[in-house]
Amino acid sequence: MAATIKDIAAAAGVSRGTVDRVLHGRGGVCPEVKERVLQLAEELEYRPNRAALGLAALKKPVRIGLLLPSEGNPFFGEVIRGAKAAEKSLSDYGTALLPEPVRGYDTAGHLRALRLLEERGADGVCAATVDVPEVRAAISALAERGVPVIALNSELSPCGCLSYVGCDYRQTGRIAAGLLLLMGLDAPRLLIVTGSKRVRGHNERVSGFLERLREAGKPFSVLEEIECEDDDEAAYALTLEALRRLPQADCLYVAGAGVQGVGRAVREAGLLGKEPILAFDDTPAVRALVHEGAVPATVCQSPFEQGYRAVKLMFRYLTSRSEPPKRWIATPVIKIRENIDEGDGSR
């Protein structure tokens, strides 16, 4: 049986009136209580009165823009699948996604996508975008014009975003460093392959990784940091060139996508299985390298749930002004050969 306001109130230890105020965005509730109520509503799968909500939503179809650098980046396939699952669950209310995919992290391309989404009539936007002044200014301007933005998958510096739905990149970088420490390599000489320095999450994965290694007090060195724009061909060419130029490298840390290209370069250099590749996410390329023993473990971030949550939170805000939590953080999951094929428990 579906949860009720009474159930949420009992679980949160507050009155039904407080829960009602939170769910209908009426204010007068402290932030800690509001966040707890919203989290419990999600966990208990609370569904508001469909007739009442439908009457409000159907006055005007709810259009949610989706800006993702998904072209050529298989990671975002699961984010899209989650977003579409949320869209389907909200179809009774006339909800529709307006996808605007881009390739890579070119600032002009992301600005163009934001502009197109506004021109297409997006009521709100869920965006995985670059953390640069021009994009932050565009998002701030959208918010001022009444088009809220949820930062999806990669957090942005303050610019008026409604919420952030994604992972804690610094923490996942620290987890990757912990895995490296468990391997017991003697003074590892690292080649770092990042996605883009315009993406805050990629930067935090690198800084968290190095932060944890320094804390451990064991010797290591970073020979070079390559920026591949999450492109497999670029990752292949740049990694192969670096491996030939830096034969002393004995471990690769891939902070973004481009894993297929990195694996291809390592194989061509005759080093597959000899030099560990530390990677993230459960994409086909990562899964294959885990099975081959080239990637000992991968740190995953529930991309389906990120897409699903972002769309649901945006819908609730647009239809009832229900404020989302400032940050919804996916729980990291470590996968190795023995559990890489088990799936992520997505809906």
Summarize the structure in words.
It is a single chain. With 347 residues, the protein is of the alpha/beta class. It has helices at residues 5-12, 16-23, 31-43, 50-57, 76-89, 107-119, 133-144, 169-183, 200-216, 232-245, 259-268, 284-292, 303-320; strands at residues 63-68, 96-101, 124-127, 149-153, 163-166, 189-194, 221-227, 251-254, 277-280, 298-300, 327-329, 333-335. It folds into three domains: 1-47, 434 Repressor (Amino-terminal Domain), CATH 1.10.260.40; 56-166 and 305-330, Response regulator (Rossmann fold); 169-300, Rossmann fold, CATH 3.40.50.2300. It contains 13 helices and twelve strands. The strands form two sheets. It has a six-stranded parallel β-sheet, with helices on both faces.
Number of strands: 12
Instruction: Determine the structural class based on helices, strands and strand pairing.
Output: alpha/beta
Q: Characterize the overall form.
A: globular
CATH architecture of the largest domain: 3-Layer(aba) Sandwich
Strand order of the largest sheet: 2-1-3-4-5-11
Write down the Rg. 22 Å
CATH superfamily of the largest domain: Response regulator
Helix content: 40-55%
From N to C, what is the helix and strand string? HHHHEHEHEHEEHEHEHEHEHEHEE
What number is the mean pLDDT? 91
The largest sheet, given as strand count, sense and whether it forms a barrel, is:
6 strands, parallel
CATH class of the largest domain: Alpha Beta
> Uncertain segments of ≥5 residues (pLDDT<50)?
54-58
Tally of helical runs = 13
**Beta-strand proportion:** 15-25%
Whole-number total of structural domains? 3
| Span between termini | 18 Å
- According to CATH, the fold-level topology of the largest domain is Rossmann fold
